[in-house]
Amino acid sequence: MWDHEIRAMASTHAIIASSVFMATVLPAVFVPGFSVYGTHLVWLYSVSGAVTAVSVAVFWLLGITPPTKKHTLGYKLSRLFRSCLYFFLSCLFFHSVVVLYGAPLIESALETFSLAVLLTSLTTLRCLCVLGPSVQAWIRVFSRHGAMSVWDTCLQITVACTVVGAWLGAFPIPLDWDRPWQVWPVSCSLGAMIGFLTGLVGAPAWIHYHRKQLTYKSK
Amino acid sequence: IKCLFSPFIYIVGLLLLSLLLWVCLVYFVGIYVFVSGFLLVRLEVNRTSTCEDVLQPGHEDPQVNFCSSKPRFRKVIILIIDALKIDFARFDPDNQSPRPYENKLPVLEKMVSSKPTHSRLYPFRADPPTTTMQRIKGFTTGSLPTFVDVGNNFASSAILEDNLIHQFGQTGKRVVFMGDDTWESLFPKKFHRSLPFPSFNVKDLHTVDNGILQHIYPTMVGGDWDVLVAHFLGVDHCGHRFGPDHPAMADKLTQMDGVIRSVIERLQNDTLLVVMGDHGMTDSGDHGGESQKETDAAIFLYSPFPIFAGPPSQDEPDVVPQTDLVPTLALLLGIPIPYSSVGQVLLPLFPSHQQTEGAVGGLSQLEALWINAKQVNRFLETYSSLAKDIPLESLSQLKAEFSHISSEYLSSLRGGRSPSPQLLSFLQAYLASVRDTCRATWARFNPFKMVAGFTILALACLMCLILSEMSLLLIRESSAGLKTSVKVAACVSVSVAVVQLYTHGYMEVVWCFAAGAVSSEIVFFWKVCLLKDSFVSKNGSKAPKVVGWLKLRQLLVPPLVVLMLRCASLLSDSYVIAEGRVVTFLALSLALYIPVHLNWKGLLLPPSHDSLKCAGPLPSMVVSPSAVRKESSTLLGCLGLLVGSFYLSLSFHGCREELGSCQPSLFLSPLSRLQDSRLKNLHYVLAVAALCLWTFLLRRWLCHYGNLNASGVTVFTARWILPLLSVCLGLHWAVGATPEDSFRNLTELIRLAQLALPRTAFCLLGLGMLLILCDPLTVFLKTRASASGRSSSLPPPRYRASTGISPQAELHHLIPQIYQRMRRSLDDGDVSGSSEADHRPAVEAYGLGTVYSAPVLLFSGLLGMGLLLLHPEGMALSFLLLLLQMASLLHIHASSTTLYSGFNVPWTPVVLWSLASTEFFHATGHLPTFPSIQWSAAFVGFPDGHTGTLLPATLVTLNTFASHILFAAGCPLLLFWPLVCEVRGSRGGRACGDEAEDAVMEMRLREHPLHFSAALLQLSTRYLFINGAQVFASVCAAAILRRHLMVWKVFAPKLMFEASGFLVSSFFLLFGVMLVLRVDVAVSRWFKRLIPEASR
């Protein structure tokens, strides 16, 4: 029943995952002295940029973004503006949440904000792509009966995986192992990335496995 | 409704209390049994030997001074190479491919083989615990130090027992020390000169060693010393970092070889060289435990002139116990043996009896042994008179042995004949058996006790879980197997005691308790199984719901996962060191989980389609969208407050010494220590503001719910004692902050105030609590004039309309409704058909809706103020945060409960509650380490010190566990708060236009006494379970990691703090529950008094 959509989803996810891969490999070739640990922020921004660009492009091409009611240019522009605003606000939101969780407030603010940008591009951006700039809709999606389509379920899974990954990533920080990946925010961003990739793989698989149970109300 | 007056709660309440008490007792027994097997306790004897009391054999004359005779050596150099294992020191010329740690100290072998009369190499066996601090203590005092040396001053780690360094100083020897800075803290101001180097960083292999090498040779040549102690750490740190099997170890050992060589070259004739390791290491480079690899170090003795009779012979010892160094060095250098030494002189270093003729100044073997034996015997007598932990049997045997030897020795001496050669071996045997007896008493973990304690605790946790999951069933069946359990426990422990008495002749209390606890637990489980079966057979349909209580899926809910993570974090030293932040992290995660979970259930946003929600024992309520929106915004607001206060509380943390870069909070230092007067004023103003806000918030709440109208004693407490107490506190801080020299003419007054103000506060506090316990009711009765006209046919006005619309006024009059309903039911029972009366309440009871929570809250508030008195002033802010956090937690719980669930308190708020208590343990400046205990708390109100120990110990305990106490005492509030906040929800319902049932708030509890007590039981067992699980986890950590490097620094103190925290919080939890039951009794009396009056 959902085969077509699942296939589309799997290929979308494959594209996004490969973009993550490319964003890691390409700078390693072109930028001298690049490493995921050493020049972590470079990796972080390259990955978030790649994910942002690829997801926007793919979701726009697929046409999953909810149809706009008006087709005027002004309306579209305001939508775009609101999306950008939400993106930025979400960065701030993640930043403050991460600080509340115990990240240093002043010392490594840039690192913390970069992590917030990564988290935003992995979670909020997808919400923007799938649901459009509407916080109400975002909140409603994350409830048991909130998913209206396969894409909503997929969104739930990937966002949850990313957030849980970042959360788990904070665990090794206090340990006294002195590894390069324990430096703030390497473990968290790696955790978020691994969680995101898991979500990309897991979401189509889960939906495929549970496709009999899934029923969606029409909008 | 009849049960409003019934004494049902008496029985159930007593049952509840005794159940909780029993569970707590089982926990205590578990902790006690484990700790008695894990923490080895020894009493310190604070006496010192003097030159006068060590008598030369033969001269039983007190005038002769032992120290004045010429000793064998004038000087000694002690090189301590930390973790110098015996394997490192041995040299095997046949070994062609030595491992990195083998054959790296050829100098020792060379000396031993080339100069056999000058030097010896022995294995040097340490006693567990093989950690550096304990070992230094061991080979300077000659005793067997344990983790808790009672009498030890926890505030500083200085050795107070008699020791070699002290004796050196006593006899005027100049002791020069260099190396590991542990010595500096163990022997403060004892050295003639000392060059300590930081030892904390295990990664640093060279700082200490290079520091020593820089100074040791100039010092040796300079000659301004008699005893030179150098403690090298490189080998130990290399072991910790790389393990022994690493090239770095080879380098380090080769360096040490060079050091020993150069020291030997510079050695003068009257100097003894001792090279020794304090302990060994395992193959992974760790130490701390009792395996032979850890205990067997090396000792190398060298003297420039011959001291040994000949090459090593057969009768020399294979292994030298570490304690033996102390008497040997003492007698070789001509100082008294330290008082509590249990060592035995190393005989090969002393000439045998025949050789002494002619030798100058040396003691013969027999003389040395005799001095030694006398000293050991004296110690044993003193110790056994102070402590009773040495078994009497062996004590009397030792005594008999000594008297036999001494009579033989003295008679032979008097007779002038040379003593028999057996005497030597007798003396040796005596000394060895004393040491073995002491070791058996002090220096061994007792694995059986550890396992027993572990089992009891595990079962107790399981029991708590069962109790909390099946509380309703257990309360309903009312007996719950408690009586049988207690009876069986008593029987079993008595019979174990009898058996022990019969077989051994004495009894060990630990085992009796352990047997009792285990048997009662088993009986409990058996009873529960029976109960479950009978329940299943009675109503089969409900069976699966009850049977499935322990399913794994039910235990994997996020709050319990968070609890498990918390417990797991106790198993790692890094997480224990960062505990404050770890707990905050987990608590935040759980707090953020609440809205996410609610949203997942679709309850955060108003539902698009209407549905009636029926929740638990509460009557069904219509939840309107506006109410939901309101609840959600309250919830999110409170969440913000909670998260904010968590974040702010991080700035009140103290610092562990392990975290080098950490700065302790500025608020932790008392005002009198601040130099800057503006900063001081600012701190003072902040503290007083926080105090005022604390008082104001409490009173505001009580006033809001109409609990300040009555004329009872509790209201008196709230109205007068609470503000008075805060005034006292503010004045006390002001007096404490005044600099000593500023008001010279007022010194007397200030001193008086320092004494009087805190004592007044203590008295007020005690009085307030007593009053609350005496009469906890805060209900104000107002009889309407028209009460007599209830049968008249006046047009029934809605009473609410007549009282205005202000929410407060409305609240004051809410309660008549319950009374009305009560009356209606009575009337229905007595005179049928007169239901007209209920439109106009005859009696208005102000504050009945919060009759339970008001005393509990007031009590916690008072307690909080008393605890604040024991803290530095800056902590007032932290206490305010604590109050805010409690309030926001309660509100979150209330909102989320009115949103979807019923009467029982779910796991999430309870786990959060417990996490918050741990968090505020840290945020009030405490840490789970002994040096961080705030001893100054003992002197609040007692600036001149105490005579006893009970009072200061109580004060320090109250100070240390302040947050545990507050959260435990306030725990019942979790049950009441959703009911207190019920008003909000129901008002929303009315706004919708529905004829919703009026809120009766906490009177619901009285309508369902069974559910009430079941919920109370569930709440308290859940709280106990959470705290108990943490104790269990730290017990696991201590048991599993007992060989860990950090066991005495991190895990054992953590266990002690966790266990005492559990003790204190369970006590106050019981107290809180008792208070609730007390209120309940008072309320039922009140109703009884009211009813006959009204129905007259």
Automatic annotation (TrEMBL), chain A:
It comes from the Eukaryota. It is found in: Endoplasmic reticulum membrane. GO terms for biological process: GPI anchor biosynthetic process. Pathway: Glycolipid biosynthesis; glycosylphosphatidylinositol-anchor biosynthesis. One of its GO terms (cellular component) is endoplasmic reticulum membrane. It is a multi-pass membrane protein. The chain crosses the membrane at residues 12-30, 42-63, 84-103, 115-138, 150-171, 183-209. Its main location: endoplasmic reticulum. The keyword Translocase does not apply. Keywords: Endoplasmic reticulum, GPI-anchor biosynthesis, Membrane, Transmembrane, Transmembrane helix. The keyword Transmembrane helix applies. This is Phosphatidylinositol-glycan biosynthesis class F protein. It comes from Gouania willdenowi. The lineage of its organism: Eukaryota, Metazoa, Chordata, Craniata, Vertebrata. The gene is pigf.
Automatic annotation (TrEMBL), chain B:
One of its GO terms (cellular component) is endoplasmic reticulum membrane. GO terms for molecular function: mannose-ethanolamine phosphotransferase activity. GO terms for biological process: GPI anchor biosynthetic process. Pathway: Glycolipid biosynthesis; glycosylphosphatidylinositol-anchor biosynthesis. The chain crosses the membrane at residues 7-40, 450-474, 486-503, 509-531, 682-702, 714-735, 756-781, 851-870, 877-894, 961-980, 1023-1041, 1061-1079. It is a multi-pass membrane protein. The keyword RNA-binding does not apply. Coiled coil: none annotated. It is found in: Endoplasmic reticulum membrane. The keyword Membrane applies. Keywords: Endoplasmic reticulum, Glycoprotein, GPI-anchor biosynthesis, Membrane, Transferase, Transmembrane, Transmembrane helix. InterPro entries: Alkaline_phosphatase_core_sf, Phosphodiest/P_Trfase, PIG-O_N, PIGO/GPI13. Belongs to the PIGG/PIGN/PIGO family. PIGO subfamily. This is GPI ethanolamine phosphate transferase 3, catalytic subunit. It comes from Gouania willdenowi. The gene is pigo.
